[in-house]
Amino acid sequence: MNLSWHPPMPNFRYFPNSETDIKRLYSVLNVEGKKELFEKIIGDITLIDADNLKTLSRGMDESSLYRYFEDIALKLPDKNRFSIFAGGGVYSHFVPAAIDSLISRSEFYTPYTPYQPEVSQGTLFALFEFQSMAAEILGMDVVNASMYDGAESLAEAILMSLRLYLNANPNQSLQNRQPQNNYSKNEINPHSDHLILISEGINPHYFSVIKSFIGDIKAKIETVKLDRKTGQTDLSDLKLKLKNNVSTVVIQQPNYYGIIEDLGELEPLVHSFNPKPFFVVSSTEPFSFGVINPPGFYNADIFAGEGNSFGNYMNFGGPLLGLFGAKKDYIRQMPGRIVGKTKDAKNKDAYAFILATREQHIRRGAATSNICTNNSLNAVRAAIYLSLCSKRGFGELSLLNLKLAHILYEKLLKTGFFEPWFSGDFFNEFTLKIKNEKITALRFIEKMADKGILAGIQIAESGILVSATENNDMDDIERYAESAKDIIKTAV
């Protein structure tokens, strides 16, 4: 088989613009050329000449093409060689072989988005089960059929909370307008002064995505400090910042530093304020809800987080699986789609999308989001994983994660080369400070990688974020502790 090779166009390969068009575009944008254009977008970067990107210099037959990419793969680090203790939002969990086997069925793997219930009962049933199991784990009334990832899910949750706040408080910032039944994303007042309070314990990548999402509606974001001792969201700082224009309070559970937040104290404080802000809880590790109470238990209005831990691979950080849940009262403002159970013409159980608030499906003014699809395949993987796991197994795995992380934590403290960064309780992720000033956290991580250990994520010059899961056995933990001791002791 010969693959015809077409050299890339000198400029935008996939846009059929002529040189004249391109010059006009540059003129309208008031830039000299491509380099200045990209500098304005993402800063001063070195652009690679298109000729240097010609990795395939000629047409190849199938066998040669496989060999070509196998050679590239051999040059990459072998992930199986590493013991992974780095989390920070994406965690190394065991994926049973049954998932790959079942998900590879063409009914799941190859169909286009399952709009038509008459041909998609299997996928719709799997998504219905996914929603049901996720709702039980999160303790939420309603969970949708998934979002792209946790960060996008949380950004959509904040937009949803703003819509709900406007509907509940039409006079708060809609001067000169008549109240309506529903306000869509497009109707959020661009000059509003709504304030969104976000805990410093939120994943920093999520924070970046949120800022991008709300950039065009000009709602303000203010962070709530963490208690420097415990690592929990500071209640006194939250009290100080709760004002009349606060529409949303966002907390991550456990937070980015692994600390378990005291939602039992936070939720009454938020909901007792008048006008009532919406309480949004996020999580990058919902496995934690096998041993700690879920967001629904604490009366969270909206949950938005990451579900990659349920039967999906880490890959290179994606594709991931966004989880989204809410109270039943707020269902009309939820983004994405919801699969429901009904009866067909023969009075047999059947499944169909019962809510899809995408602009393409309903009146644009009533749409809640322009999200056009979700990660259905990853959601089905999660459904298979959770069904294999069982309710009891989920709790046991969750407890195992907690125990392994605490064993590693204690072993590292006993070396004498670490001290706690925060003192709060944690689930399967914790922070430590390296006590030897002669080695930074980044250098420590590099040295550990040389020994085949992904030791964690740098959070400060001497601070490191470490996680442990069921994929780390006691030998891995012993090796981590011994290697860490050797590296720090000999640092010069």
Q: How would you name the CATH homologous superfamily of the largest domain?
A: Type I PLP-dependent aspartate aminotransferase-like (Major domain)
CATH topology of the largest domain: Aspartate Aminotransferase, domain 2
* Overall geometry: globular
What level of helicity do the residues show?
Answer: 25-40%
Please report which band the strand proportion falls in: under 5%, 5-15%, 15-25%, 25-35%, 35-45% or over 45%: 5-15%
Q: How many individual domains?
A: 2
Poorly predicted tracts of residues: 1-10, 174-186
Structure class: alpha/beta
The topology string of helices and strands comes to HHHEHHHEHEHEHEHEEEEEHEEHEEEH
Query: What is the second-level CATH architecture of the largest domain?
Result: 3-Layer(aba) Sandwich
Strand arrangement across the biggest beta sheet? 2-8-7-6-5-3-4
Distance between the termini: 57 Å
**Biggest sheet features:** 7 strands, mixed
Count of separate DSSP helical elements: 13
CATH class of the largest domain: Alpha Beta
Mean of pLDDT: 87
Radius of gyration: 25 Å
Extended strand count:
15
InterPro entries: GcvPA, GDC-P_N, PyrdxlP-dep_Trfase, PyrdxlP-dep_Trfase_major, PyrdxlP-dep_Trfase_small
Domain Glycine cleavage system P-protein N-terminal: 13-163, 194-478
GO molecular function: glycine dehydrogenase (decarboxylating) activity
Pfam family, one: GDC-P
